[in-house]
Amino acid sequence: MESQDSKNLVFPHFVRDNFKELSVSSFYVNQEGVWEKLKAPVSRINDSTSKKRKTTSCKIDCKAKVIFKLAMGTCYKITEFVEGHTHTMVPIPARDLMQSNRNLDEFQQRFILSGIKANIGPMRSFRMFREIMGSYEGIGCTGTDFKNFVRDLKVHSKGSDAHMLLETFTNRQELGNGFKSFHDVDEDNKLCRIIWANEMSVKNFSLFGDAVSFDATYNRNRYKLIFTPFTGKDNHGKCVSFGAALISHEDTESYAWVLDRFDKIMGNAPRILITNQDPGLKKAVASCWKETHHRFCMWHKNIKVAEKLPPRLRENTAFKTTYDNIVWTDDDDADVFEEKWNNMIQEFELSSNKWFTDMFEERSMWIPAGVDAQRYNYKLSTHNDETRSPTMVTNLPIERNTSVVYTNSVFKDVQDEIDHASKACGMHKMYSEGNITIYEVDDKLDGVFLVRHMKSEDEVICSCNLFVRKGTPCKHMFFVFRNLILTIFLKSTLLCGGANLAFYARMNHMINSVVAPNSRHQVSETIAHVRGHEELSEQLYNNLIELRDKFVENGATSTTACSKTRLFNKFYGSAPTDSPTVLPPDIAKTKGSGVGGRRRSEQEKAMILAQKT
Questions:
Q1: pLDDT tens-digit profile of 493-505?
Q2: How far is 209 from 272, CA to CA, in rounded Å?
Q3: How far is CA 194 from CA 160, 180, 226, 493, 579, in A?
Q4: 490 has pLDDT over 50
Q5: Are the CB atoms for 501 and 474 separated by under 8 Å?
Q6: Residue 239 phi/psi, 5° resolution?
Q7: C-alpha 540: how far from its chain's center?
Q8: Cβ pair 402, 416 in contact under 8 A
Q9: What are the phi and psi torsion angles at 231 (to 5°)?
Q10: pTM exceeds 0.85
Q11: N or C: which end of the chain has fewer CB within 10 A?
Q12: Local structure of 558: helix, strand or coil
């Protein structure tokens, strides 16, 4: 560069606009200066009470800089220029890692938020996003940027999260869609308990709410509040939620509050309530739901057996066999049960063991033996599945794959449907209605049936309703499954390139977040025409870029700059406030918190250890 004393520079208009007519503008490299921690007082750096963390910094006091001074109002003069750097330049292959070149766009931010809703952490989301983009270079940021975004999400609601939660619940109730909630605060106006249920939960309770399980052993949240879900089983034998609550204390008052509000939400109490053995919960049920039959969950009881046994019996297989034969029995005769129990206590010298004595005193609270019979039958069926395999009746891969998914007893019915699908079913007609693809399957034995494939929910239903009635996929659904698997295979073959994957992923994002629902089908059809054709895909991409530039010329501004706050508010359902009406709860001191969390049994510790890689 020429001497700074002899060179006046006239900058283009966009540079002058960026300078905003400043009289002096200085530019430094990002490695100038000294790390702030090195400037801190020695007493604070050596403070033994602060948590020490080994970190690095790009600040190495580089002196390179250039300073411009406005001259005569139209040009700038270089008044100082230091060319030498005290560090090497970033090589071209690594420039995408520079902080100035790393940026989370709205698509990536939405991807992270979707992962959080599915209980997927930032690093796993980062690795999944890498698979979508085809390479790490195509992401445009690092795993640290993903983690920092989640950090910012938590900071965004700090101090206002309780207020935001209640505001969201209030808005949902005002919509009149059946959502209901109650909350309570302590003397310091801090949230201490809350319960909620949506319209579907209330409907499920009216249909399947005779027997309800109430579990109070979950506390995985920032404030260590106890999460207490109400759960049952639907007509498919699958778990269904009736509502949930968060409480800060595991005492009779808190449990009574939850049960009372649950009764108000549902309109009545369940006939049977299954819980753990918490004394406070037992008192609350007795006082609030006097007509409800309260029973203890045998799983909670038996998981404690190993730790309550004296050491001499923990590896005793004879005791385990005797205990299982008594507890998991089909015998409903109370006298026979008591005789066997007393014999076991005497044989293994457990008369002085308080836990076994208390357990026997509460035997009337155990779940009835009918459930135990199901457990035994399950054990027998599992043994048959592990030692035997069914014989295939077709050469279809879907049959062999399905045999692994289902147990042998259920697979017999499923196998018949697959066999009939290959022999008696054909395609009569196929058409689309919005996001639903409808197949008219011609069944030579029973006529024509409609199979609907909801793409957004990835759900398939058939007009024969066999799956609704018995939980078994019908032959008409299996006939459609074969076509869907073929279609999926063809799509995966066409979308083999990383660039194409990234392009179509972003196009799908555009369809879902920008295009009106009634127009998404037309946009999807447009994309389908170019899928698998490199030249057409490139042409569509260039047309979109050209259209974007035209929008910018016409003054349309991007929402990317403010997208983070906007997305955070949408994620939480409301915006934070400087003056919340309800304060966040204190970190709860729940049972077992004095030893670093809930006490785990030896069996649970072994299960956790076995899951570690």
A1: 333 333 344 444 4
A2: 9
A3: 16, 11, 11, 50, 20
A4: no
A5: no
A6: -65, 140
A7: 34
A8: no
A9: -130, 150
A10: no
A11: C
A12: coil
Beta bridge partners of 82: 65
Ranges of beta strands (E only) in 221-372 are 226-233, 239-247, 272-275, 293-296
Token pair belonging to 495: 């979308």
With CA atoms as reference, report the closest residue to 450 among 472, 470, 433: 433
* Tokens, residue 86: 């005290």
Average pLDDT in the chain: 76
**HSE (side-chain half, CA atoms, 13 Å) at 40:** 9
Helix, strand, or coil here: 135?
coil
With beta carbons less than 8 A apart as the criterion, state whether 417 and 478 touch.
yes
pLDDT at 250: 87
Distances from the Cα of 218 to the Cα of 284, 550, 588, 591, angstroms: 19, 53, 13, 11
Closest by CA position to 418, among listed 441, 449, 394, 453: 394
State what percent of residues in the chain have pLDDT above 90.
12
Ramachandran category for residue 224: left, alpha or beta (phi over 0 → left; psi -120 to 50 → alpha): left
Task: Please give the pLDDT value at position 559.
Answer: 53
Would you state the structure tokens that stand for residue 557, as one six-digit string?
């501004």
DSSP secondary structure code for residue 489 in this structure: H
* Beta-carbon contacts of residue 164 (< 8 Å; ≥ 6 apart): 157, 572, 573, 574, 575, 576, 577, 580
Between 1-5, 165-169, 254-258, 547-551, the lowest mean confidence (pLDDT) is in 1-5
Q: How far apart are CA 42 and CA 44, in angstroms?
A: 5
Q: How far apart are CA 112 and CA 313, in angstroms?
A: 50
Count of beta carbons in the 10 Å neighbourhood of residue 426: 9
**Any bridge partners for residue 229, and if so which?**
244
The DSSP call for residue 461 is E
Question: Looking at the DSSP assignment, which residues form a beta bridge with residue 211?
Answer: 272
Chain segment 176-226, per-residue pLDDT in tens: 778 999 999 988 899 999 999 988 889 889 988 888 988 876 666 678 888
- Specify whether the CB–CB gap between 159 and 183 falls below 8 A: no
Coil, strand or helix at 189: coil
The runs of H, that is alpha helices, within 425-533 are 466-470, 475-494, 498-513, 520-530
Query: Burial of 327 by CB count in 10 Å (0-12 exposed, 13-18 middle, 19+ buried)?
Result: buried
